[in-house]
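Listing S7. Sequence submitted for prediction.
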Amino acid sequence: MLFPPQGQWSEEEYLALNTHRRVEYSDGCIEVLEMPTQSHQLIIGALYRLLFEFVAALRLGVVLPAGIRVRLWPGKFREPDIVFMRAEHAQRRREEYWDGADLVMEVVSSDRERDLITKRREYARAGIPEYWIVDPLLSMITVLVLDGDTYRQHGAFKAGQVATSVALPGFQAAVDHVFQTE
């Protein structure tokens, strides 16, 4: 397959990519994401298990780990590390991608600006009600909730604390447990 030049990819061409790499789409450009580290994956696993068990027990919707594409708006797709969609929004879930989400979690990678600034702005613009920024460098989980068209900080939770959700009352994650990568 011949690939289009950067800036000239269509959504259809992006969605037709068959790869084991995480690839995001932005305004006609393909963004190949770095391969995750073991600790990155262990953090995702810990959070995914906690969120999955909570959501499943209450039959609130669907939780998926990295790999599902989320369309934020035409021309913009991201692949959050963890994504949740409420049952009542099931019509926004497609086989190839979801239209938006009700909660996303990102484990901060080496491209800190992307997770801390760019995705924060994009997820707010897309109307995603809650964004968890999970920062291994600071051993901190920042929970952001949508307030109008921007996020406000619900909390910056550190070691010894428990991160809590606004979008999912009762859901919580002990920071020490999340960052325990052994």
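Caption to Listing S7: primary sequence and predicted structure tokens for the chain studied. The longest strand covers residues 140-147. The longest helix spans residues 38-58.
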